[in-house]
User: What shape does this take?
Amino acid sequence: MITQVDLHYFKCFELLKLPIGDLTLLSGSNASGKSSVLQALVLLHQTMREHEWSSRLVLNGDALKLGTVADVVDKVHGRRTFEVALTADGHFYHWAFSGERSEMSLAVDRVEIDGSASNSPSKLQYLFPSTDDAAAVDLARRLRNLTYLTAERIGPREFYPLEDRQIATVVGPAGEHAVSLLHSGRDKPVIDELAIDGVPPTRLRQVEARMKVFFPGCGLTVEQVPRVNQVTLGLRTSDDTDFHRPIHVGFGLTQVLPIVVAALSAGKGDLLLIENPEVHLHPAGQALMGEFLAEVARAGIQVMVETHSDHILNGIRRAVKAQRLAPAQVTLHFFRPRIANETQAISPQLDKFGNIDVWPDGFFDQFDKDVNHFAGWGE
Assistant: This one.
């Protein structure tokens, strides 16, 4: 498991050392750096996945398009370099990158593993200088196979592309492969810890059962269009109705489906990064999503989520209070806009009752602030 992410001169960070847990929640105001933490991991993932033997970090690919070196280097203190370090399973991995500001990739200047450095490496595989280190090989595998879901997930479609299972191994950053992954892996078992009792343990039936938690009465069917590399998704919201085209059941179902498919397609040790899982969800559904993500983390899948929803947070707190997840497994971070000599990330702590020890200004407190405006009205 990754237990810390360090960023130096990356985007809005001069230096960030961020602890990571089984379930990590990133919150804060807009443009405060939440997405940048996820993007640093996705850049490693993207390069490893698309360019196995590359000695450069690729800024623009299928998962992420960040522009040029000038767009990703800290504009206050940086010049043409940045660094990313990960602590995982007791080992320390550090990469230093550099490039001309107009370039769309950066050279790997140094790779360090547990204090042993390889400078200006001429040959890398998956951004590592050697495949003899079993721990490094395992980390590279997890980074290559991570799932990254952006906030801009695709909505209802008449048809969804059917991809080869070697290509569509994850749901895709917009959830564009979710239906294909559900179809091709419909009979694969989900991990025991996430299987709902009384339901066949296959991916299709378990995804349907999970969707019913969010949307009571939900049913789904996935069918291939004959002689075409396309699949259709049928949805219903009641056992008394037939299956409908996705456009007729609202955006909420199609926004939640990629998250559920991603979680139930993952294995132990896999990494799941999700931006704004609350999109198009009713507040009650958002709280259920928090509880679901806690259950996914308890099953051994590492989850990092960026959110603006206090309901997501409260769902996680409810899971902790119900002892479905230990407080030590949850890491909370609140990011503030960059101000000189102030910490950019504050890390409130949860206790076993789901209580939070500190509430920084702006940390899911807008409801209380709004209610104060009405104090005394009508008296």
